[in-house]
Amino acid sequence: MANSYQTLQVRVARIERATPLIKRFTLAAADGGPLPPFTGGSHVIVQMQDGARRYSNAYSLMGSPDELGHYQIGVRREEASKGGSAFLHDKVAEGDGLAITMPNNLFALSAQASHHVLVAGGIGITPFLSQMHELRKRGASHELHYAYRAEEHGAFRDEIVAQSRQAGAGTARFYVDSLGQKLDLDGLARGLQAGAHIYVCGPAPLIDAVRAAAQAAGIAPERVHWEQFAAPPQAGDAFSVVLARSGRTVEVAPGESILKAIERGNAAEVECLCREGVCGTCETRILDGEAEHFDQYLSEAEKRAQRSLMICVSRAKGQRIVLDL
To answer: Pathway of this protein (predicted)?
Structure first.
């Protein structure tokens, strides 16, 4: 098993409504001191206790990495979610305490890129806000393309425009679906200059479209970066998981994760904080067989090595896999 996360106690210093569905939460250290440093694209996992129910949701840090007196996260209320966003929207007030993990970055800016092209959809704008602070400080060449479905859903647009004007660096373009404004992803990918990297965060269809456009344009995979805090839907045939330490075999049903199958049968003690393939706490060693990897935690090289998998989202490639549990 992998990471055991250190927890920070924070206080909700301020709550602001950014759009009809998005609130910004400003978090300060409970002891009043500075918070740990982070880099653009970092996230924290917010741990919430609602009676007997516990939620752990990952959120990007959207403030300046130079301002450690507080963190800021943007939370979109998701009706069809695990419940954490609704809890934050409906039950958390200014002055309340929360527990969060130390910042972690799975969506860092590339040091090799000569130009950075940022593509955001909806709430996917949040990691780019901290990244743009970092890019402006570096004096790095960059541009932002931000798409959302209607004018009232353009969270943080005014701030982006104001900061871009003040810095005099980078460009920001906005695309409002209800106004018929469409982002030409194929054209963007074809026009990507040599040495430039493209980053995308937002709904799964946007991420898939950017990755497909980049592939069609012949852009090397290492120049394409993406992030989405949502577990992929479990799909695929049933398979068996052999737990090597106990010798037990667990049958994983179609549409079921390995983690849920183990918990359903109380077959082993496992730890998983996020259940979305981003925190690394459920990383488990593969002893035999191969995995289909759906997490965002392991690098592409680590996935190819087939030494471990995240049991919350990843599956067996065949009918059987043996794990170090």
So the answer is: Amine and polyamine metabolism; carnitine metabolism
Residue 221, Cβ neighbours under 10 Å: how many? 10
Please give the Cα distance from 269 to 100 (Å, whole number): 23
Q: Is 201 annotated as a binding residue?
A: no
Is 312 annotated to bind a ligand? Reply is yes
Cα separation, 59 vs 298, in Å, equals 18
Judgement on whether residues 144 and 54 belong to the same structural domain of the protein:
no
242 by Cβ neighbours in 10 Å (0-12 / 13-18 / 19+) ranks as middle
Task: Lay out the sheet containing 283-288: strands in order across.
Answer: 248-252, 239-243, 320-323, 283-288, 308-310
Range of the domain at 288: 239-323
Integer Cα distance of 119 and 200 in angstroms: 5
At which of 227, 254, 276 does a domain end? 227
Encode pLDDT of 105-129 as tens digits.
999 999 999 999 999 999 999 999 9
Q: For residue 99, what are the CA distances in angstroms to 12, 25, 47, 193? A: 10, 13, 5, 42
Residue 274 assigned to a binding site: yes
Q: Annotation-wise, does 272 bind a ligand?
A: no
Q: Does residue 254 share a domain with residue 216?
A: no
184-214 pLDDT, tens per residue?
999 999 999 999 999 999 998 999 999 999 9
Structure tokens given for 58: 């990952």
What are the tokens at 273? 């904080």
Within a domain: residue 108? Answer: no
